[in-house]
Amino acid sequence: MKEYQTITEISGPLVFAEVDEPIGYDEIVEIETPQGETKRGQVLESSEGLVAIQVFEGTTGIDRNASVKFLGETLKMPVTEDLLGRVLDGSGQPIDGGPEIVPDERRDIVGAAINPYSREYPEEFIQTGVSAIDGMNTLVRGQKLPIFSASGLPHNNLALQVARQATVPEEEGDEESEFAVVFGAMGITQEEANEFMQDFERTGALERSVVFTNLADDPAVERTVTPRLALTTAEYLAFDKGYHVLVILTDMTNYCEALREIGAAREEVPGRRGYPGYMYTDLAQLYERAGRIEGREGSVTQIPILTMPGDDDTHPIPDLTGYITEGQIYIDRDLNSQGIRPPINPLPSLSRLMDDGIGEGLTREDHADVSDQMYAAYAEGEDLRDLVNIVGREALSERDNKYLDFAERFEAEFVNQGFDSNRSIADTLDIGWELLSTLPKSELNRIDEELIEEYYQEDAETVEAEA
Amino acid sequence: MSQATQESVREDGLIASVSGPVVTARDLDARMNDVVYVGDEGLMGEVIEIEGDITTIQVYEETSGVGPGEPVENTGEPLTVDLGPGMLDAIYDGVQRPLDVLESKMGSPFLDRGVDAPGIDMEKKWEFEPSVSEGDEVAPGDVVGTVPETVTIEHKVMVPPSFEGGEVVAAEAGEFSVTETVVELDNGEEVTMHQEWPVRRARPSTEKKTPREPLVSGQRILDGLFPIAKGGTAAIPGPFGSGKTVTQHQLAKWADADIVVYVGCGERGNEMTEVIEDFPELDDPKTGNPLMARTCLIANTSNMPVAARESCIYTGITIAEFYRDMGYDVALMADSTSRWAEAMREISSRLEEMPGEEGYPAYLAARLSEFYERAGYFTTINGDEGSVSVIGAVSPPGGDFSEPVTQNTLRIVKTFWALDADLAERRHFPAINWNESYSLYQDQLDPWFVENVKDDWPEERQWGVDVLDEEAELREIVQLVGKDALPADQQLTLEVARYLREAYLQQNAFHPTDTFCEPEKTYGILTAIHTFNDEAFKALEAGVPVEEIQDIDAAPQLNRIGVQEDWDAYIEDLKAEITEQLRELY
Predict the structure, then answer these.
(1) Structure confidence by residue, pLDDT tens digits, B74-94
(2) Which residues of B are annotated as a binding site?
(3) CB contact under 8 A, A48 and B17
(4) What residues of chain A lie within 8 A of the CB of B424, using their CB?
(5) Which run of H or E residues covers position A303?
(6) What's the ipTM?
(7) Which residues form the ATPase F1/V1/A1 complex alpha/beta subunit nucleotide-binding domain (chain B) (predicted)?
(8) pLDDT tens, residue by residue, A215-238
(9) Domain with CATH 2.40.30.20 in chain B
(10) Which of A386, B69, B155, B566 could staple B149 via S-S, CB 3.0–4.6 A?
């Protein structure tokens, strides 16, 4: 291992150094400043005689006399089951004052892609206890389902609620499957981090969690490593140790900002809005690390959270995310200001893996039809609201008024359940039927006739009328 | 590589620099697009630029840990695919490495580096049945025998296009591996089942003809309103969540092509797994055999190396052309061409090329048109006819169709299926916007529909389109004044249009019966709604209030036709019932 004192240029998070031996791409570097501080970095570009190094902890304090040491290996994450219950910083060092971590193995953090042939298609329903998710946008094991939120909205509460309540309804006789949470925070404030930590501690979730925190005032470049450390840990727990791992990554927007910062420092040709052209590939390398593998016990399920700048879902970050992930959950500002908790707007939300994870034997035989019909009915009610603003309710037909009522009750009863209530899927569907039964049978054109026979509540209309 | 080329150049070099998938090498004597093996691990790459003694290479695998000074070995050949029996029922990555073989070779569910495998099994014995005998004259492209490749597909062994051809001196039936000679010619040329072909070059054909037959998809809105021809091109652009992939899957499942090549380019891993798990269990609607028996899958998911994403489209179309040469109708689905374009952009930016629009390379339009031009209805070089239809999904950022990939694609393709986020949000699936979409094949395909389905197919379709157009206009007014403010006849038009949308345009891909709708049934549903329309307007003229017309019990049954297996009788009964109930009102 050779040490160099050959730094030629320092620019933003990048350091350029001259070398006289070949250095591998992505290799890890230690830079020691004259003050004795050690910083870690990674080789971004390697050519004969010159390497570009991206420094995780920021380049402050580095001068041309700093010494550069190449460790001869790519960045690794020490993994062990003992990580459960631990709190680490954004580059994987413990910060909870606990004992030193003795790794079983050190894994490359740039995970290799799962061979699509070896994957198992996710179709096991995860009950989150949140009606708007379970009923309308069902989550399954091995899925990646982001939360599209924006500043000032309670996405963290929703993430916590899901982390707390998520279970897989087991059939009798099955062994209790082990559940773990890996939490990767990128650039969130200390206050937000405390919120998460307190909730983890209060509910006892911490002992089955691994927490990585890169705070808002930690170096931005470190953020590009944090999710990879988290996912490497998650993959180890899932595919080697058989845990069902839920990975929560927040906030992906900060991650992408860090990518842009590095791209700009490298003087790369920028893509849309200054983000690097390879952002799709980069994000895919994170999100695609969710899944199930044939013959392996565990699974990795991802819930990345991102805040859409200006509530704009065509912004490159939500846009590219949506193209990679298997659906999205929208947090809605209007619903939030109406006091609906959680303020999930089911209309733009989607779970792509829902169809195979629900139905008879998985959830309930009426699930797909009920969810379809509620979407259609809520969408119709929403449309009519625009009209009501112009012509008033009296001008509308009886049928239209029923849809308007449906939309109201859908928000107030189905979506609005509070962050502390945990509904079983049967409860969720029953509430759905209660609402659908306010519409005439003939309007339920997406539900199988036999199911209407079985579940339609004949007296619902009269109840509504009396009320 | 084909036998006709000169002795390969083999001159090895050393890596000069590494930056992600782009590696430069010094002293490598290579030609453009030669395949090289990079570094100690032998990662596969392709030469994309030569400047002085510096050669730039795009590497198809992860380059972490690779450094300057490591060797680069030149194969002297461009990127080729192995063609021969065994490609159907296979699943490949972007450079035609079989993923199942990779899994067992690597001993891990994760894709490791530096492992190579031929595209077809070189050892496996196939049952060869010659169709020529000694003394026959054969020319390049001629079929010399057949191999039962799968239960559905008879693989035709052809004289490679690079051969001169001549008189057959030996042809015997029996079991052979793909590398063994099955037919010998008098000039010493030996025909095997195995051919190689450089992916970036189209395979030769005699003539491109005007397509006149539809690629029947079993999807009402496609067959009924916006058909694509066998040998045609189509684009499906749409924002995320609007159903591009489901539409592509539906086409791969139900289109009446002989062979389907499905290219998953930079898309989700779980989606490809779904295809891998679903297709073997589904039956081909034409033959009843498993769907995989006619399908070749190419999966280069979004987290697999970006350079292989750039090449997977070419790998797919070359395989498609090979089956076309056998006289088959091949449909190629590319999901998504935007990811392919982005891969070009990513590599172009690493090369520090001058960017064109939105950072895409200036040659984007040329590459897209080059690709779509490889589709068509062809006379093959042996005089047979075969086709390649190409259906490309496009994923425009933010759902904005004005971006370069969509716009450049639309300049080339003749069928446009515009997916619409609003429709998807309403759970109107397939979420194809009928006002924006078009098919330029309509006129040349109508004769087929008239002959094979019903005489008045074009007229019925036009009636449906007119009603939908009228609805679009009326809806603007309704947005302002409400439905009840419209005159009765316009209200009725809206009601008819609603049935067109719900019963005809919507189709449930996940319902066992509704998922496939034969053209006769598509036509049947349309006429049932037409009957309702005619009878309803008669009732209206006779003075029946529009509310009463809307309220008849039979009308909502229109929405149930799609799920009926015995639709023919159901439609006849329903037409009678609607007529009866409406005539009772006056």
Answers:
(1) 988 888 999 999 999 899 998
(2) 238-245
(3) yes
(4) 350
(5) strand A299-307
(6) 0.84
(7) 218-439
(8) 998 888 889 899 999 999 999 999
(9) 11-78
(10) B155
